[in-house]
Amino acid sequence: MSVPSQLLETNAAAEDRLDKALAAAFPEMSRARFQALIAEGAVTVEGEIVRETRHKVKPGALLRVILPEAAPALPQAEAMALHIVHEDKDLIVIDKPAGLVVHPGAGNETGTLVNALIAHCGESLSGIGGVRRPGIVHRLDKDTSGLLVVAKNDRAHHGLSEQFAAHGRDGRLERSYLAIVWGVPERRQGTISAAIDRSTANRQRMAVSRGANAREAVTHYEVLEQLGKPPVASLLRCVLETGRTHQIRVHMAHIGNPLLGDSVYGSGFRTSATKLSEAAKDALKALNRQALHATSLGFEHPATGKPLRFESPAPEDFGRLLASLRLNNTQA
User: Fold this and answer.
1) Handedness of CA 131, 134, 139, 143 (dihedral sign)
2) Residue spans of beta strands (DSSP E) within 118-232
């Protein structure tokens, strides 16, 4: 049925709870969005406002949803140069430089990727969550460089979020990283399966945990190259099966091979820098961050279903460190 842009109307297809019935009828919008609208009193069942998401609706019941106009963007737009790898009306893929925070937060209210995307996309953004803003479906740490996909409308946000929630286990999503770690892992290929939670000692850090609130975390890695003679470090390709905060950094530290430059999870390996040549020491100091780069990203386009895949070469600071470690000789 054709309805005004600010009104959704349908008949329930089967008996179900209200939020699920609406999400099934309008898959371009997320169930969470419908739950918020129900709570706001924007949904009626047979003409009566219902504010309970679990309310059971009968087959054929008339459901109406009033969509409020999208509020102005919060945070505000800030013009910034962006390295755009791909863009269409539904999504945008960014090659994020190290040092750029993805989303505003305490201590980073401005100057973030979200501020820049609001300025770049302008009116092409729809009211994600009732506010004109880009839909962040995954993040990179401030000091991690590489590929990031962002939704520009509710349909894309819902479709991408579903793929990230499936963790790539259905074959649609792929995320791989280049990492330079101290030492050489015992196995050239391996899988680290260790749940992650907030550290009980420091809430700003994550840690491997067996606690009740720990979330499953799985990282696959492959040693691409041993660096130095004798090897003092290794170049790894890491593939995420899950996407927890600081996952690669925590997992590599957990097996005794933390990332070079990681002041949070690799502080115990600072003395390892004494094994580096002067050129390698200078390159590590210039990097001034964890040696981690999101090098490939693949997913299914949420609107067309077309598989998309993007590659990002390692940035200059990462490449300079890698080159110096290849030449590193502790006997020199």
Assistant:
1) negative
2) 127-128, 131-132, 135-136, 145-151, 174-182, 189-193, 196-198, 206-208, 218-227
* Shared-domain flag, residues 219 and 308: yes
Return the bridge partners of 48, or none.
45
Question: Among the options 90, 141, 154, 197, which is catalytic?
Answer: 141
Question: Residue 141 catalytic?
Answer: yes
pTM of the predicted model, to two decimals? Answer: 0.78
- Asked if 62 and 128 sit in the same domain, the reply is no
Q: Kindly state whether residues 214 and 296 are assigned to the same domain.
A: yes
Mean pLDDT, rounded, for 151-169:
87
Q: Assess if residue 286 is contained within a domain.
A: yes
By residue range, what is the domain housing residue 155? 84-165
The CATH number of the domain where 248 resides is what? 3.30.2350.10
pLDDT confidence of residue 190: 97
Number of domains in the chain: 3
Dihedral pair phi/psi, residue 77, rounded to 5°: -70, 140
Q: Which residue has the tokens 């993007």?
A: 310
74 domain-assigned:
no
Q: Mean per-residue pLDDT for 15-24?
A: 91
Convert the pLDDT of each residue in 126-139 to its tens digit.
666 666 678 888 99
